[in-house]
Amino acid sequence: MNLTSKTVLVTGGAGFMGSHFVRYLLEHYPHYRIVNVDKLSYAGNLDNLIGIKEESRHHFILGNIADEVIVRNIFKMEKPDFVVNYAAETLVDRSIAGPKIFVESNIIGTHNLLEAVREFDHIKKFVQISTDEVYGEILLGSATEESVCRPRNPYAATKAGADHLVTSYINTYNVPAVITRSCNFYGPNQYPEKVIPIFITNLLEGKKIFIHGDGGQTREWIFTDDHCRAVDAVLHKGEIGAIYNISSGESRSVFEIANDICLCMERDSSEIKFTHDRPGNDRRYALDWKKMRNLGWEPIHKFCDGLAHTIEWYRNNQTWWKRITEMPEFQEYYEHKYLTVQ
């Protein structure tokens, strides 16, 4: 463990994975101070920070990284040693309905952070959190870090654009940055529009599970703790200028996940219904993550174990997610998304 005092700026730290990483750093690095910046969009939730909001080493700032003045002031006042950029709009369906906010958060926000890193030379490393979706459909084999980006929806395109900005700042301005591209996250306190929590919460409320298309869309899945450990390895041991794919290597189709959840919750597969497919619904993603093994990282959570833990969390924290699912905005979004049922 590094006992040297450091300040880590985590953007999007009130969101799902950002809040998990904030907690991880506070637990594993007692000499680190965490500056947590989040604009508290619909998916940002201060309840994700319960138990650490008053931690003396944790400083929360309400702010939007798309505002360059706010970003510059934070860097000037807080003087971070490391920056980890989790802040992003992430849901493909929402990017199809309204891509502008994705451009603002994912591209302009990243640009503002890179400009601040460029200006303030005390930054030791900038970690850009990205996604396997930038590679586009991988029908056979696995994408390596050298694979060409072929994004097929607005969300993936904005993340690929941000990645290219990071690479350009590395090559042009010698910005000390690295990029991680991860498979799908899952775990406790994920916003219930995502596939695993929406399946779980629907069953807990006595509703059906709805699947877009035939459910054959396949993704690799990584539990929250494993992803935190991977980003930790990249932050402290990753090579400046490198890209690192992060994956568990465990693939599941949407239909298989629905069946797994029904089995874990002792529900019949008749709870599964199919609805219209959506545009840009890539069939398969897969990552080659050998470079992460070279950093000494391996996933330790099997999908079945992580899923059981996640189901138990949603079962025991219904106040947390019902506060979200009972909001008019969420109900309107849900009805629109699953309006046409086959």
TrEMBL record:
GO terms for biological process: nucleotide-sugar metabolic process. It catalyses: dTDP-alpha-D-glucose = dTDP-4-dehydro-6-deoxy-alpha-D-glucose + H2O. The keyword NAD applies. Keywords: Lyase, NAD. Residues 9-308 form the NAD(P)-binding domain. The lineage of its organism: Bacteria, Candidatus Jacksoniibacteriota. CDD domains: dTDP_GD_SDR_e. InterPro entries: dTDP_Gluc_deHydtase (IPR005888), NAD(P)-bd_dom (IPR016040), NAD(P)-bd_dom_sf (IPR036291). Belongs to the NAD(P)-dependent epimerase/dehydratase family. dTDP-glucose dehydratase subfamily. The keyword Oxidoreductase does not apply. Its EC number is 4.2.1.46. One of its GO terms (molecular function) is dTDP-glucose 4,6-dehydratase activity. SUPFAM superfamilies: NAD(P)-binding Rossmann-fold domains. Its cofactor is NAD(+). This is dTDP-glucose 4,6-dehydratase. Coiled coil: none annotated. It is an enzyme of class 4 (lyase).
